[in-house]
Amino acid sequence: MKLLLLGHRGQLGWELQRSLAPLGDIVTAERHVADFSRPDQLAALVKSQRPRIVVNAAAYTAVDRAESEPELARAVNALTPGALARECAAIDAILVHYSSDYVLDGSGNTPRDESASTAPLNAYGRTKLEGETLVRASGCRHLMLRTSWVYSARGSNFPKTMLRLAAERDRLTVVDDQFGAPTSAELLADVTAHALSTVLRRPDLCGLYHVAAGGETSWHALATFVIEHARAAGAPILVAANAIEAVHSEAFSTAARRPANSRLDTSRFRTTFGLNLPHWQRGMERLLDELLAR
User: Fold this and answer.
1) Which of 13, 63, 66, 249 is the most exposed place for a label (fewest CB within 10 A)?
2) Can you give the pTM of this predicted structure?
3) What CATH number does the domain containing 153 carry?
4) Which residues are designated catalytic?
């Protein structure tokens, strides 16, 4: 069985190369033949390869920059996934596509399930929501996974930034009014492979699912966890434990508004596929141990 994996050099795509390998032969494509700003190019790639499964791990994720580059963000996050989906429908392939908690409005303080109303607060969220809409409209069989706060040892992310800043500064300021579950790319890739193997046997289980690590935290609490774990491991941490200041989002001027509530209700995914989604601290500890061992 052939799987076409797009975005294989990103945080999630890198892990998917490993997790999807037992399912079949993985084909990847470099950017010059898989330019996500060109929907026609990606559609032609699917048509020529005729894979059984297309896994789209590529996305425009520069949330603030999307405010000044809305057309590019739309091409990558919406128009190209739509083109992929239509080509998948034409060849009867399954599309795996990833979406974001940013399609929701971020209100309230309880986890949102798949039936929650969508109302993005920024351009990035609007493009991700349009991508969802186009995938559904194509009529292709799809496994669409909304997730939140993805990180890995590869690439740039919040935990790595906190480790760097904590070694350079004696004080930090971090927002404490945005909540979610940090989700490792490793976990997301592993559960994707499991869910995909299930829908290959049970295509009626295709659809939209929320997937995130268990538990919840704020960015401030996450920063404190990362820094204290590193301190306990003997890393050269300059910032004191009582010098990580908690502030409201308004203290930072950003181009894009962020949702305050990124909590996702994952019960449908866990029940359907019989999986446990471990607490976010487990994955974070693994990441930090790997980074600090370097």
Assistant:
1) 249
2) 0.94
3) 3.40.50.720
4) 124
